[in-house]
């Protein structure tokens, strides 16, 4: 079976941000080297089962920009490149140097996703980030100097203490840097994080109404500057939508490589063990490090397609909906939350802001 989309999970970071809910750990140099070898080994094992012919490769984390360029090069050297269109690496602004950017370009990286999060110093302090807004500016400059034009800036909104004005200022500063893509995520309070504890103790407070207003205003600002709001949290200039993420949202098969990475192929979905030492040990012994496996039946795949499709500006083909669901669609159209475009049901901008709540109507 041919696989066109690969994700590599690099679980190491220099510090752990107090809101982070991913499987990440502080990375020591030795661990990074061992992990790189293990990722290569896992690819080799997977090649016995699948024909890997990637159109998109995404190296995410964690902070993969902590790895040496040589390690990224080794990792990429075992992949076919004939049909590769998009090769993204996620980067922390403080880890990007002139040399690293040039070496990434040389090994074929053509898209960099920079974890800016905010251009406001106070927001960055609250988020426990070590970088300053100036590091984001410098990163963009260095990437562009190296010839990498396709730059995404990741932002968070709903940060404690952040108001609408400061979010708009942050985004305006981002726009001044002329990125091709902006991702904008609402801060979530993941269990077992210091932020979750602070929320429970009443030190932080969520204001969902304010969050909706922030997203609405942000969407307004970015679309006015030519960005297409093509997924609930993603904005791109024409021609710069993320091919890799679109593959997820369209329900395509993908392999996730690395500790805690998730894969979906046909009706099977599995997740690797969320422990880098156990992961390295298993693949070194020639085994896949799968911790959980589930079978997806036709109905659950259908529901997932609806859930993911509703979050995008492509919507969902009407053929996915039964009679009962079409009545819900009529009501959503009447309420101005959705519209029919050709043979598809698409949420309006107002609907998109509450896409997850709307999806619940179709999930039962
Ligand atoms: S840099 Fe990103 S992945 Fe690493 S701890 Fe912070 S939020 Fe999590």
TrEMBL record:
Keyword Methyltransferase recorded: no
Any GO MF annotation of the entry: metal ion binding
Domain Radical SAM core per the UniProt entry, residue ranges: 1-231
Gene Ontology cellular-component terms listed: cytoplasm
Pfam families named in the record: Radical_SAM
Regions that span the bilayer: 6-26
Subcellular location: Cytoplasm
InterPro entries in the record: Aldolase_TIM, Coproporphyrinogen-III_oxidase, Elp3/MiaA/NifB-like_rSAM, HemW-like, rSAM, rSAM_sf
UniProt cross-references to Gene3D superfamilies, sorted A to Z: Aldolase class I
PANTHER family given in the database record: COPROPORPHYRINIGEN III OXIDASE, RADICAL S-ADENOSYL METHIONINE DOMAIN-CONTAINING PROTEIN 1, MITOCHONDRIAL
Protein name per the record: Heme chaperone HemW
Source species of the chain: Methylacidiphilum fumariolicum (strain SolV)
Gene (name only): hemN
């Amino acid at each position: 079976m041919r696989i066109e989309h690969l994700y590599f999970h690099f679980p190491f970071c220099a510090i752990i941000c107090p809101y982070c809910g991913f499987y990440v750990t502080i990375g020591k140099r030795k661990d990074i080297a061992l992990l790189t070898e293990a990722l290569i080994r896992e690819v080799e094992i997977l090649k016995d089962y699948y024909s890997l012919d990637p159109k998109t490769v995404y190296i995410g984390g964690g902070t993969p920009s902590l790895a040496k360029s040589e390690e990224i090069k080794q990792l990429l050297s075992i992949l076919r490149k004939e049909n590769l269109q998009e090769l993204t690496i996620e980067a922390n602004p403080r880890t990007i140097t002139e040399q690293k950017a040039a070496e990434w370009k040389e090994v074929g990286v053509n898209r960099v996703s920079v974890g800016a999060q905010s251009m406001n110093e106070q927001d960055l302090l609250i988020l426990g980030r070590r970088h300053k807004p100036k590091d984001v500016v410098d990163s963009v400059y260095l990437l562009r100097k190296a010839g990498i034009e396709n730059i995404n800036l990741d932002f968070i909104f709903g940060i404690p203490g952040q108001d609408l004005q400061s979010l708009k200022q942050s985004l305006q500063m981002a726009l001044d840097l002329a990125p091709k893509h902006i991702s904008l995520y609402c801060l979530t309070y993941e269990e077992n994080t210091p932020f979750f504890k602070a929320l429970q103790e009443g030190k932080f407070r969520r204001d969902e109404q304010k969050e909706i207003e922030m997203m609405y205003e942000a969407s307004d600002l970015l679309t006015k500057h030519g960005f297409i709001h093509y997924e609930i949290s993603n904005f791109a200039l024409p021609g710069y939508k993320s091919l890799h993420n679109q593959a997820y949202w369209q329900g395509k098969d993908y392999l996730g490589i690395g500790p805690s990475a998730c894969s979906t192929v046909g009706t099977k979905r599995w997740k690797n063990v969320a422990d880098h030492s156990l992961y390295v040990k298993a693949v070194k012994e020639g085994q896949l490090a799968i911790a959980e496996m589930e079978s997806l039946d036709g109905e659950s795949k259908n529901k997932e397609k609806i859930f993911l499709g509703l979050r995008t500006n492509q919507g969902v083909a009407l053929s996915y909906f039964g009679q009962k669901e079409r009545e819900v669609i009529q009501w959503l159209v009447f309420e101005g939350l959705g519209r029919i475009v050709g043979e598809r049901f698409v949420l309006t901008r107002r609907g998109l802001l509450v896409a997850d709540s709307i999806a619940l109507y179709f999930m039962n």
